[in-house]
Amino acid sequence: MGIWLWQAQAQDAALRAQLCALQARSASVSAQLQEATEARPRLLALLSRQKRITRERTAPGWAPVLRSVIAVAGGDIQVEDIQARGKPQEPGVGELRISGVVVGESPRGTADRFRADLEAKLGKALVANALLADFAPRDDGPNAPGKGAASRKAAFTIVVPVGLNDPAAHGH
C-alpha cells in the first residue's frame, strides 16, 4: 500500500504541475484573445478604408473629367489644385474640387464663365450643377507689377459633382 500511495502522490504532483501549466497557458491565450477582440474593429476599419481607397483610385472616368478641366481652362485661369474623389456612399459618383486664381478685368465673370464652360464640356457627366463655392479677390499689394483693371486677381474654388461610370458622357 505504501508504494501505491507514493505512486498516487507522484501522479497527483505531476497532474497539479500540468494543471498549473495549463492554467498559465489559458491565461496567456485569454489575454491574446482579449487583445484580438479589441483590435478587430480597428483592423476591419483599416481593411474597409483600404478597399474604399482602392475602389476610388480604380473608379473609371477620372481621366476624361480631368482632361475636360484642362481643355476648358483658358489663359485667365490658373488652376492650382484639383482634388478628385469618389463618394463611398454613392458608387459611380465623384466630386471634383478645382481651386485656382483668375486674372483679368472681371475675375468674377471669368470664374463664372469657367464654371459654365466646364458644365457644358462635362454635359451628361454632371450629376448636379457645378458650384462656385469660394471666390475671394486678391490684393498683391501696392507695388504689384501691372496694377490696374486688367490685372485684377481672385482666388476661386469650384465644386463639380460628376458621374464616373459613363465614359461617353464626358464631353467627347
Sum up the structure in keywords.
single chain, 172 residues, alpha+beta, 4 strands, disordered C terminus
- The count of strands amounts to 4
Low-confidence stretches: 141-146, 166-172
Alpha-carbon Rg, integer = 33 Å
Q: State the end-to-end distance.
A: 101 Å
- Based on secondary structure, the structural category is alpha+beta
Q: Kindly give the count of domains.
A: 2
Could you tell me the CATH topology label of the largest domain. Answer: Alpha-Beta Plaits
Overall, the morphology is rod-shaped
SSE inventory with pairings:
Elements: H1 2-57, H2 62-72, E1 77-87, E2 90-104, H3 107-122, E3 131-138, E4 152-163
Antiparallel strand pairs: 1-2, 2-4, 3-4
Question: What does this molecule look like?
Answer:
- The chain has helices at residues 2-57, 62-72, 107-122, and strands at 77-87, 90-104, 131-138, 152-163.
- It is rod-shaped, with a radius of gyration of 33 Å.
- It has two domains: 1-58; 62-169, Alpha-Beta Plaits (2-Layer Sandwich), CATH 3.30.70.
- The N and C termini lie far apart (101 Å).
- The longest helix has 56 residues, at 2-57.
- With 172 residues, it is of the alpha+beta class.
- A hairpin with a 2-residue loop joins strand 1 and strand 2.
- A four-stranded antiparallel beta sheet has the order 1-2-4-3.
- The chain contains three helices and four strands.
